[in-house]
Write a structure and sequence with these properties.
The complex is a heterodimer of chains A (178) and B (77).
Chain A (H helix, E strand, L loop, with lengths): L2 H4 L2 E2 L4 E2 H9 L9 H20 L6 H25 L13 H38 L10 H22 L10
Antiparallel strand pairs in A: 1-2
Helix pairs in contact in A: 3-4, 3-6, 4-6, 5-6
Chain B lengths: L9 E2 L1 H7 L4 H8 L3 H8 L7 H10 L4 H4 E2 L8
Antiparallel strand pairs in B: 1-2
Helix pairs in contact in B: 2-3
The chains are: A mainly alpha (178), B mainly alpha (77).
């Protein structure tokens, strides 16, 4: 593999070839080899994304902006940890995976699509309810900023494929057993 | 029939690999799959594509039918 190829960045997938190859070949022990730990990581990420979406309801601007920054930074860190926990399989292009991993990734995307559908419905209903509330209270339409809610929605999109794989992939056996 | 209802595919990969004194990692590198995939194949938790089955059979210099079967292999055969 040439140096140029090793550093190839897949723009659509958001990974480098080197990152995926290293991650797949990594036999070193990691807390993320265990399914239970990965599930804890998913629950923590989900909780923080929900907190990020709910910061919209905090009235004090200073507290709100601090919480927004803290939760967004935490979610971003956990997003990269999630990708790492599934060896970047959720983001890797076909050419870097074998047929079993491609099948796992594709099945994961199907479930991720369904989950995102459910989350979208929740967001839409919440928006509609808030819109009715704003209208009934005769508040100006810009009474509540929604940027953090939109960011949280995008974070669900970004994290969901890795979340599904991290949830469903069994605990890994050591390299000597496998 | 959905893929989940497929009949299991039995194989003699582990047996053949051990005969050649090859590790799963080495076999994985030769046939171009992740080392865990060999473990999944040997345990019968994953059924390979025809192309992969042919590549594995080529490594062991045997034919696909003697390496994979939908009926359990007889012990010591």
């Amino acid at each position: 593999m040439s140096e140029k190829n090793g550093k190839k960045f897949y723009w659509v997938e958001g990974v480098t070839r080197d990152e995926v190859v290293r991650s797949l070949a990594d036999n070193s022990p990691s807390v993320f080899r265990n399914q239970k730990n990965r599930r804890i990581l998913i629950l923590l990420t989900s909780f923080l994304i929900i907190v990020l979406a709910l910061t919209v309801f905090i009235e004090q601007p200073k507290v709100r902006s601090y919480l927004e920054i803290a939760t967004l930074a935490s979610v971003l860190i956990l997003y990269f940890k999630l990708r790492e926990s599934v060896r970047h399989v959720a983001d890797a292009p076909d050419e870097l995976l074998d047929e079993r991993l491609v099948a796992i990734r594709n099945a994961g995307y199907l479930n991720a699509y369904r989950n995102i559908g459910g989350i979208s419905i929740v967001y839409v209903f919440t928006y509609v309810l808030i819109a009715y509330e704003i209208a009934s209270l005769s508040l100006p339409t810009n009474a509540i900023g929604f940027s953090q809610t939109i960011v949280s929605y995008f974070m669900w999109f970004a994290c969901m494929p890795s979340m599904v794989l991290a949830w469903t992939m069994p605990s890994e056996k050591s390299a000597s057993q496998d | 029939m959905s893929r989940n209802e497929e009949v299991p595919v039995y194989n003699r990969i582990a047996e053949q690999r051990e005969l050649l004194g090859m590790s799963r990692q080495q076999l994985a590198e030769i046939v171009g799959v992740h080392y865990q995939t060999i473990g999944y194949l040997e345990r019968g938790e994953y059924s390979p594509s025809l192309a992969l089955a042919l590549r594995i059979a080529e490594v062991f210099e045997t034919d696909v039918q003697s390496l994979f079967s939908i009926k359990p292999f007889k012990k010591g055969k």
